[in-house]
Amino acid sequence: MQKKLHELISMQQIIHYFLHFVFPVIVAFVFFGPKALRVAGIFLATMLVDADHLLATPIFEACRCSIGFHPLHSYPAIIIYFLCLFHPKTRLIALGLLMHMATDQIDCIWNSTNCL
């Protein structure tokens, strides 16, 4: 049982970091053509939203859901990110932040079945 849980956690981590770092780059190159490098950079820069994890004690807790816990991962913040989709100057940042929040929500769902 212990080995199975370890394999599951490892797969979760692989998927989590793929969705945080590789998927946004794929989205940039598939949908943004000649601006892909710039867009990928913007998407990856939205990872800085995780700076709010530094406010938590402990900073990292394996089974903690960041959505609704950290200030920049709160539901009001997510609503603001969504609203920013409608303004051309903030659209790419908002899209990057929402992909980040979706990834973290997937992690929360995964944790709810694996962390007791």
Notable characteristics:
0% strand, mainly alpha, 116 residues, 64% helix, globular, 4 helices
Topology:
Elements: H1 2-31, H2 36-45, H3 75-84, H4 91-114
Helix pairs in contact: 1-2, 1-4, 2-4, 3-4
What does this structure look like?
This protein is an all-alpha fold and 116 residues long. It has one domain. 64% of the residues lie in helices and 0% in strands. The model has no long low-confidence stretch (mean pLDDT 92).
Strand content: under 5%
Please report the number of helical segments: 4
Distance between the termini: 15 Å
Task: State the secondary-structure class.
Answer: mainly alpha
Please write the string of helix (H) and strand (E) elements. HHHH
Give the total of beta strands: 0
Number of domains: 1
Task: Output the radius of gyration.
Answer: 15 Å
Oligomer designation: single chain
Low-confidence stretches: none
Average predicted local confidence, pLDDT: 92
Strand count, sense and closure of the main sheet?
none
Q: What percent of residues adopt helix (DSSP H or I)?
A: 55-70%
Coarse morphology: globular
Question: How would you summarize what this structure contains?
Answer:
It is built from 4 helices and no strands. By secondary structure, the protein is an all-alpha fold.
